[in-house]
Amino acid sequence: MTNVRKRSGCDSGIIADIVSVAYKMTHKYRGRALIFNNEHFDDINLSPRMGTHMDSERLEKELQRLGFKVREYMDYTKKDILSKIKKTAARDHSEYDCVWIAILSHGKNGYIHARDALYSVEDIWRPFAEDKCPTLAGKPKLFFIQACQGDRTDPGYPLLQPEMMDNETSSFMCCRMPMCKDFLIAFSTLPGFCSWRNTLDGSWFIQSLCEELALKGSSSHLLTLLSSVAGRVAFNFESYNPSNPTMHQKKQITFTMSTLTRILCFPDKSSEEFNDELDK
């Protein structure tokens, strides 16, 4: 690459805002949180996702506690999901800190199952890029995907440690900024691998996420919190299906992609109501 030069073109005030350590989380409202929960599917080869209601209920409770206005959308079709995403991205988010989208479904290889068809993960986050959703420019855009991303299973690896075994809406007019910054996409599993769910208690990932949000959601940096979530999933869970050796004693690890540029915390915010025109 040639003719590359360093240039900001920004005055000192804008530079100071850009390089601030933490995201501004003092807007009037925390933001909208959408939960797309698919339990049943038109394809008879896709089994009902028993236990997903536990994930949705827990997640809604924790997000409300953090100040989000939460809406659940149950068993939506691909058309309905993408329409709701497009409408959400088109709203004015000027008074909101961020946006949170959760997907609870089956999936594979970068795609997610709606009730009737597959759609790509990119279909969910791309409408929130800064050129398409300017009122979320410079604000966190958070996506949490509870879905398989393949059919591989993780048998785990024995870790032997003998010595331990006894025990703001600014669009930065003066600056060029990447359009796809300030995103976080947290997957329940690695590309190509299964994601596990208990039919009574819900998925390992959402259980662990909600437990960490309950403990540290208002005080911990989100990326730090997600490291703790990964630890819970990795260390606290193992599949139990002795009648099927290919599905017995399997493990899971979460996978996070981030273009966040600052520290993200959710300090306490009053639960002041706001009108959500999306549902009118």
TrEMBL record:
Swiss-Prot/TrEMBL keywords: Apoptosis, Hydrolase, Protease, Thiol protease, Zymogen
Domain spans labelled Caspase family p20: 29-152
Keyword Protease in record: yes
Pfam families linked: Peptidase_C14 (PF00656)
An example molecular function term from Gene Ontology annotations: cysteine-type endopeptidase activity
Entry's Gene Ontology cellular component terms: cytoplasm
Residue ranges annotated for the Caspase family p10 domain, each copy included: 173-268
Name the UniProt record assigns to this protein: Caspase-like
Similarity comment text for this entry: Belongs to the peptidase C14A family.
Domain of life: Eukaryota
GO BP terms in the entry: negative regulation of Toll signaling pathway; neuron remodeling; nurse cell apoptotic process; positive regulation of neuron apoptotic process; proteolysis
